[in-house]
Amino acid sequence: MKIRFQKLLEMWFRTQPRRACPATLALCLRFLMHGTAAAVMDACLSSEQRSQHLQEAPCTPDGCSTPEGAPREEDTGGPPGGSNKIEPSLHSLQQFVPTDYESYTQEHYLFAGTKIVIQESIESYGAVVWPGATALCQYLEEHSEELNLQDAKILEIGAGPGLVSIVASILGAQVTATDLPDVLGNLQYNLLKNTLKRTAHLPEVRELVWGESLEQRFPRSSFHYDYVLASDVVYHHYFLDKLLATMAHLCQPGTVLLWANKFRFSTDYEFLDKFKQVFDTTLLAEFPEASVKIFQGILKWD
Questions:
Q1: The dihedral formed by the CA atoms of 155, 195, 125 and 298, expressed in degrees to the nearest 10
Q2: Spatial separation of the C-alpha atoms in residues 116 and 83, rounded to whole Å
Q3: Which of 76, 189, 204, 242 has its CA 20 to 30 A from that of 178?
């Protein structure tokens, strides 16, 4: 507990232009003792930001920089299943090395009748399951037949620790999970641990930097997705225009974008206004207790 709280405070001070007030720190401690990693970070980061107009963004979507290396075996249980238990054909898929965070937690979820264990760390935004992800998983589970996810080709933007991609895979989809380089090792670990020999299609992990080399890495002539998924990719950062351009690039005629987000700041609603200019937008579901909305977007074509 002491180590997790120290790490939370380190991230908090990295993201704040001013000193945190004692009341805010007390709030962090209360959530740390009683809440999930996402609740802790969300409460601590947003409580101060709601009362200030920030002049600088928090860490980039991949989180704060940390030394690279394999997770400690005592923290994570080692590679999924151990190297002697993984089929030889899967070794080629293990191309990303997890970041060596000092503290990991194992969070448990239940979707589609399946127990899912996610390795999380409060040391990175990209290693925590946020409220939009659980809401989107619930929506996919409840509407799997309507969405016709069996064998559907899906790409997730900003997959983080991978919960949404795992649930989509369990529901029968062919999933490509993407994120920034820093979090791909942990993402890959969680995907393999929860989908190996449990799903019809093993998810693929790919690097995707919003707005960069999109046609080279995901050419429209070669890549077509039935669904593009995104959850809690909109928050207080400087990459919203690049995110919107990436969403548009990945959508072609017939592609449905499902975007779930917890709305925290005015900039979130400003992004929604821009989103509606690019996509025909439908509000699919709301989760008022978590301030999460789920939208469907169909790219507008001239």
A1: 20
A2: 21
A3: 76
Estimate to the nearest angstrom the gap between the alpha carbon of 147 and the chain centroid: 21
Residue 188: C-alpha distances to residues 42, 43, 179, 254, 270 (Å): 24, 28, 11, 28, 33
Phi, psi of 148 (to 5 degrees): 55, 60
Contact 116, 108 (CB under 8 A): yes
Residues 163, 165, 169, 174: what is their CA dihedral angle, to the nearest 10 degrees? -170
The predicted model scores a pTM of 0.75
Determine the pLDDT at residue 41: 59
Q: CB count, 10 Å around CB of 64? A: 15
CA-CA distance, 296 to 144, in Å (whole number)?
15
- For 113-156, write each residue's pLDDT tens digit: 999 999 999 998 899 999 999 999 999 999 999 999 999 999 99
Q: How many residues comprise the chain?
A: 302
Q: Which long-range contacts (CB under 8 A, 24 or more apart) does 13-18 make?
A: 14/58, 14/59, 14/64, 15/45, 15/58, 15/59, 16/48, 17/52, 17/54, 17/55, 17/56, 18/48, 18/52
In one-letter notation, the amino acid at residue 151 is D
User: Which DSSP string do the residues of 218-249 spell out, in sequence order?
Assistant: S-TTT---SEEEEES--SSSS-HHHHHHHHHH
